[in-house]
Amino acid sequence: MQIYLLLFRIFYRIFCLLPVKPVTLFWVTYGDNVKPINDALLTAFPKEKRYLVYDRKFVKCAERWATEDRLPYRRLRFIRLAYLLATSKHIFIDNYIGEFSVAPIRKGTQRVQLWHAAGTLKQFGLSSSRSLLVSKRTRKRFKHVYQRYGDFIVPGEPCATQFLAPHDLPKTVFKPFGVPRTDYWFDEQHQEIKEQLKNAYQQVGRRIILYAPTYREHDGMEGQTVHQLERLTDQGWTILVKLHPTVRSAFMHQMEHIHFVTDEYSINDYLLITDVLVTDYSSIPFESCLLEIPTILYTPDINTYRQLPGIIESYPDPLPVVATDRIETVFDWISSDRALDDSRIAMRNFKMFWYAETPGQATQRIIEFYYPETTN
């Protein structure tokens, strides 16, 4: 790793001697929170050259970005990566980029972090228990990366406050523009997707539970939970199971009203037809609150998860949700229409607290801020 970063640093410095070009670089892991920016540029600023560096594990249809070039991330491409980073005027990212530790932000360029979550219930970054196990040198490298993210886009000030300590950043770098990947919920674009999913999963007289557990490094309990939730299928519920992209459950319980959904549609697509969300330590409720979906956190392994990677001390706050490690509590809550109504109201109020600006216009705000020439 040290040799790789040394080589990257050398070539980055060399390429910084070249002129900055009117190019936008998207360097992404997941991509879904960045692609709306790419799509908007394609429409509003078609002369802008765009390049995509992506993780092929998560970005499955890179050709849909319609960029000048698309490069699956590989360290062997470090010369090309260093060149693009050094000479692109705008750089958008959505995750930790280790190469930033040796690549200070060049004058005349702009980096923008569109983090892949709109809030957190987990400890991460410098606040995680894992960070305490690494050397001081490694922690210093982490900090260098964080300090070179550039602007950090968040829903609002409460989210910025959450992200301060994990990244050791000042509040001034945070911009409360919103979450681009949720914009389509508020225009006509979502209607076709919603109809497709309704036709696939909705049935007369049945409501939909979306069970979306988060990533676990230890053996998860997803299979056991699905088996327990099976009871609800006799009470008029259809259960959609959406596993984290990094999770591959060995337990694939099949039943008429239980569906393990694929990556053909995103989690945000499935939320469009969701009546109740069951999750755990996931950041999904920080976005699904925009749809006012009743939500409960089921955490049978909370004692293990509290140790590694760790959860925030205030868990489940700031979310106004019920959190339990008892499946009977989940059943009672889901079976109570009053509880569901109360949760829906709570999520509506939380939305107004967590988001500083009107939902549905995050992409537009970002384009207008970083590409003012498109509005002239």
From TrEMBL:
Gene3D superfamilies: 3.40.50.11820, 3.40.50.12580. Pfam families: Glyphos_transf. The keyword Metal-binding does not apply. It comes from the Bacteria. Keywords: Cell membrane, Membrane, Teichoic acid biosynthesis, Transferase. Belongs to the CDP-glycerol glycerophosphotransferase family. This is CDP-glycerol glycerophosphotransferase family protein. It comes from Exiguobacterium antarcticum.
